[in-house]
Design brief:
CATH topology: TIM Barrel
Largest sheet: 7 strands, mixed
Number of domains: 1
Structural class: alpha/beta
Number of strands: 9
Number of helices: 8
Radius of gyration: 16 Å
CATH superfamily: Metal-dependent hydrolases
Amino acid sequence: MPFKIDLHTHTFFSGDGVSSPEDNIAAAREKGLNGFAVTDHNTCDAVTYLLEKGLMRADGLPVDNFLIIPGVEVTTDEGHLLCIGATLPYLKGKPAREVCEIIHERGGLAIPPHPYDLFRAGIRFPVLETLPIDALEVFNAATTLRRYNRYAFKYAQLRGLPMTAASDAHHHEAIGTAYTILNTDDLSTAGILAQIVKSNDLNQHYLTPRDSMRKTWNNWMRLRRRKKLPETDPTLKGDL
């Protein structure tokens, strides 16, 4: 059965995200997605929040037929790296290879997002060659220049890597602009992770000019403001 999963999304727990986890879920459901990975920058606080609210399950099963996959987008020393399927401690600034190893130790997949993107901390080719990655994001709906997606696609082909597509949404309206179509009978975190490393179909559409402008504005403003975020229960963090 084909499941539509957006594997790269952000909430207001990211410094440049603006939407609540609840708004992201509502938007994703409205667009016909079956789930998404929450991949905030260098924090898994949204996962804790969602678990507290009963909107995702620690055992990796869906809630009301909608799956939220834990994850994080780590700002490594060489560029951004997605962890899909696991939570991580704070690893900002660590070498990308070390982060890959920790991701694998925790049962997640290491997937570089928007590689080659010179303006968005994409991991460059010389480093990609050295990393034990599980797949490559070859279509990012928010890429600065579309040719960067083409470069990523060609590299994945040459290396024989599984491919993903994602919205990189920082606002709920952008959720599901692009997504990966995963053919599996198992709508669970384990089932989706097992399918990601196989061949999958990709839904590829770019952000609208409005959403692109909004994302750029948020990137600039994150250095000038700090949001007051909902508090999470500190007793849950040790269980992630």
